[in-house]
């Protein structure tokens, strides 16, 4: 579990600050438990405003206008709308993942089986699939109308009507989510690709080298190659990221951004910084204060909120020592 938000230094000593941080951890223990699994993967988390309601514990979800209400110990209660009214009853489920509402469907868990619920409360995919244990996750979000699921220990792909698209097979080690109408299937050391109908297709990252020998102009040649990283780009006063061909890959949602370093980029909304990955997911929440660092200083030659050797400088103690985080968002020593 990530450390609580960075506390601004006071006149207390470093020891007092550490004791204060510990007190904060104890005070926030329940709320961290409740909210950690429901954090948003996008900038919406920072701009989301919770509605007034009689529910005690409410958090934002990845679906604008929908909010998750849970009990003190984290059991789901309801999806509520921006007026604080219940729209979906969740009391029959063990867990739900508000972080992964996608294309109008919410992953739910009942009797340790995974299914998907629409925002009208109907189980469009019955709770019949295995939990997918990938990191802290137990289910995949809907991606382009397709869902990667497991049944009897084997991976497969279904559509949102629960029809099998890619047959379940014990030979499959992993299936990536669909992107651009294509999904990658991993079998031991081999990989293959399938389209939205489950039919084999070619590797989308393969470049026809013979075609590259044809005298195309530079722009045409660039389009044949996949991007290697993303670059900051500003539009209408907001910041996002584009690929090598200047195609928008992460929307213009931020007040300020840093370039990608070691696979992560710092992004700011109002006075708070967080970090996104190349997929545009908010992997370290917005909780680092803009005023917590000195703009003219650096850490090992890197400015604030830029990763270097697995660490990013995010704040200062009064004694001059820097505070850093690792790529999981945990506070670590900068030295």
UniProtKB/TrEMBL annotation:
<protein>
    <submittedName>
        <fullName>WG repeat-containing protein</fullName>
    </submittedName>
</protein>
<dbReference type="InterPro" id="IPR032774">
    <property type="entry name" value="WG_beta_rep"/>
</dbReference>
<dbReference type="Pfam" id="PF14903">
    <property type="entry name" value="WG_beta_rep"/>
</dbReference>
């Amino acid at each position: 579990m990530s450390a609580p938000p960075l506390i601004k230094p006071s006149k207390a000593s470093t020891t007092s600050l550490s004791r204060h941080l510990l007190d904060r951890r104890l005070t926030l223990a329940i709320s961290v438990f409740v909210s950690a699994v429901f954090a948003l993967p996008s900038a919406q988390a920072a701009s989301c405003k919770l509605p007034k309601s009689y529910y005690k514990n409410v958090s934002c979800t990845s679906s604008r206008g929908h909010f998750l209400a849970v009990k003190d110990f984290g059991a789901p209660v309801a999806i509520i709308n921006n007026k604080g009214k219940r729209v979906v009853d969740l009391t029959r489920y063990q867990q739900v993942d508000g972080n992964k509402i996608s294309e109008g469907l919410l992953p739910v868990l009942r009797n340790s089986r995974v299914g998907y619920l629409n925002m009208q409360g109907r189980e469009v995919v019955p709770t019949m699939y295995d939990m997918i244990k990938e990191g802290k996750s137990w289910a995949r979000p809907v991606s382009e109308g397709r869902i990667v699921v497991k049944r009897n220990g084997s991976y497969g792909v279904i559509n949102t009507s629960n029809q099998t698209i890619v047959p379940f097979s014990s030979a499959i080690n992993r299936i990536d989510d669909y992107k651009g109408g294509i999904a990658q299937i991993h079998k031991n050391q081999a990989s293959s690709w399938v389209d939205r109908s489950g039919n084999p297709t070619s590797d989308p990252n393969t470049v026809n080298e013979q075609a590259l020998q044809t005298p195309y102009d530079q722009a045409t040649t660039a389009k044949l190659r996949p991007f290697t990283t993303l670059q900051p780009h500003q539009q209408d006063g907001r910041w996002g990221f584009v690929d090598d061909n200047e195609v928008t890959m992460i929307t213009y949602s931020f007040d300020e951004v840093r370039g990608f370093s070691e696979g992560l980029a710092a992004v700011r909304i109002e006075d708070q910084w967080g970090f996104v990955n190349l997929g545009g997911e908010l992997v370290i929440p917005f909780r680092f204060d803009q005023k917590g660092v000195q703009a003219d200083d650096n850490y090992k030659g890197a400015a604030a909120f830029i990763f270097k050797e697995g660490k990013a400088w995010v704040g200062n103690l009064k004694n001059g020592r820097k505070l850093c985080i690792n790529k999981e968002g945990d506070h670590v020593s900068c030295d």
